[in-house]
Amino acid sequence: MRSTIQLGADSRHDQGKGASRRLRRAGKVPAVLYGGKGEPKNVVLDHQQLLTLIDNERLYSSVISVNLDSQPQPAIVRDVQMHPARNAVVHVDLQRVIENEPLKISLPIHFKGGAVAPGVKTGGGIVHHLIQQIEVSCLPNELPEFLELDLSNMNLNDTLFLSDLPLPKGVTIPQLTHSNAPVVSVRSPRVVEEVTEEAAAAAVPAEGAAPAAGAAAPAAAGSAASPAGAEGQKKEESKKEEGKREGGGKKEKK
User: How far is Cα of residue 142 from the mean position of the Cα atoms in its chain?
Assistant: First the structure.
């Protein structure tokens, strides 16, 4: 069984949050080793060694050798918990690997030939990566470090699916039993239209249009009010006429 990464580990007997905090202050990382035919075991890893490995994709896609108390045990990394504010590893989950039992693990997908694909080189398209890693199933000794997909023959608007991934012997993709998801495509770039001043002016109503529409309401109100104003004026004039007649009558009596 190929193990390209060696990880030192020691047994851990103290448990609890207080013990874990003391380990972290001492430059150690609490971890658990489980699965296989053994009982779960609490172990301690070296923090500095982990920091040199966490950015290496092979740590998560390879069978590693956990040298627990100087006894090598094949395992895979199931989870690495990082501190939310610092570049520090908080906890690691390790799963034992048995040589003759299939395992499931996520592998990265490496893409090649995208720059020379006709859809990119002559068609002006852009490569869109839709899936960057996929879970596979295989025996430990048949596990590849990654899957590789060639894009050099892709034309504009072409799409490659999970079924187009070349798989090494003994490797399967469980997801293919229910979904042949797209992995990568070549699409035309989105055209962003620049709005010129003339286009913006054409899209907005003329400056006088809004006031004119608004002015219609006062004009209408004025026209509606004008009959009432004329009627009031007539009433006022008739009162003045009556006043003159009454005044003239009084003068005649004298």
Answer: 33
